[in-house]
Amino acid sequence: MTIVKNWWKQEIFYQIYPASFKDSNNDGIGDIQGIIQELPKIKALGITTIWLSPVYKSPMVDNGYDISDYEAINPQFGTMADLDELIKKSKKLDIKIIMDLVLNHTSDQHAWFKDAISNPNSPYRNFYIFKEGKNNLPPNNWRSNFGKGSSWTLVPGETNLYYHHVFSKQQPDLNWENKELRFTLYDMINWWLKKGIAGFRIDAITFIKKDQDFASITPDGSDGLGKVKRKSENRPGIDKFLNELNEHTFKPANAVTVGEASGVTYDQLNKFIGKDGYFSMIFDFHYADIDVQSGSEWYHQTNWTVKELNEAITKSQLSIQKYGWGANFLENHDQPRSINKYIKDPAYQNKIGAKALATLFFFLRGCPFIFQGQELGVQNIKRTAIEQFNDISSKDNYYRALDEGYTKTDALKYVNDRSRDNGRIPYPWNNEINDGFNQGHKPWLALGKHDSHTNWNDENNDADSILNFYRKMIKIRTTSNISSDLINGDFEPIPTSQSTVIAYKRGQNAVVYVNLSSAPVKLDLPKGNIILNNYSEINLQRMEPYQSVLIEVKNNG
Predict the structure, then answer these.
(1) Which class in CATH covers the domain with range 492-552?
(2) Which amino acids are annotated catalytic?
(3) Fold of 7-105+179-389+422-470
(4) Which one of 97, 404, 539, 546 is most buried, by most CB atoms within 10 A?
(5) Pick from 340, 334, 342, 343: which is nearest to 295 by CA?
């Protein structure tokens, strides 16, 4: 049997956030059986791989990214038998499953950590990072990546011993300097691969290497602390860990791996996604975070332009193309809804705008990643008080903004704009009770206040819906005359005379033009076969507000 090495290049990924997808037992929380129920609809969309956000056993302080047992399922999502059933039934539909893999930290409720803090002689003490404090203070002035407070927490019952956490204090960092820890993780990863999953999306992987001097840094906030990422994100020496990880797990299994690799510069891409790279592909956040100066400090907002977005996308595409493969996305569980982020005119935060963004991102070189609800045009939800938020980083960012002198009104606006809760609202299946998410039990997170027709049922029956537009795009990518161009063709930017238009060519025959503006523009579009258009008509000398087109042109067109 011939094994295709880069089989994943043709995949279309769909991220499911289990707690918010479908609640099969009416307890207010989505579950694995709910996903199984809706597999035919996922198949009908054209999806080939599901990325399943964490369903591991967890106290859910960070919604499952705080794992208390890597080889057990959180009872609120179901059982291991349910997951086995999901893998089996997905396979029958030719849908693969990739799991979220969290290797930088565990939950503070993990058996390893509980033993490590209760017993100084515990074999697990060296699985984590413990340091003595200085002058009745933490070991250094590193600030947690969740926005507020030290990245060190005093061990309960101790007077001067601290443990380290890049993220929340309930997520103690694993000590990757310890070989025993590393190989214990590798055994766990291989256990999952043998279950039949196709690979992993790997969370926060560039944080596993910390500078071993653990030295304080120049403060960058009024709290006297400095960003922990300056000493723990993509640091020298991480290559040893990532090479070893790949060699002992992913590579032998021919698994697909998608790294959440923040802090990676474009000139480092060869190491990460090159011929002998650590991962199949990585997410690039350079243009995803164009609306904020720092992805972890939401109050530093920018007034970005379409020209800047175009330049960022082009730089990303050309840089990734030089070395390997990309993972293209508009939304995920850590991002706000794309309609609200990328479309500045509220009048076009609608069907037209959603289709324009879809066209822009979907045909870029690399695998497209669709986040649940994105294919319906789900929008952000506005909350009126910080107490209404569930997301831990939203709360941290709110209070950090207040510490930096912003008003409560401004701080709440920044959090509403950027909250991870925006992507986590329950999926709207229909216009019935609780949007069809369940049979009436109060959902774990408040429903979105969207248009009543923004739901799967209504859009499935509307030929002109966003959902059916996504189906068309997927079909074009997989079965059209230009599918080879759209999958394998190089990306080439197309300069235009209009600063609000982003245009590019894929391969020899496919060109994309998108006007990201609420004003029409004069522009000579190339002649050819109009494959996709988010308006009912087209004028080859003019683009309408937020119009997007995909055109099949001749080789020299």
Answers:
(1) mainly beta
(2) 203, 260
(3) TIM Barrel (3.20.20)
(4) 546
(5) 334
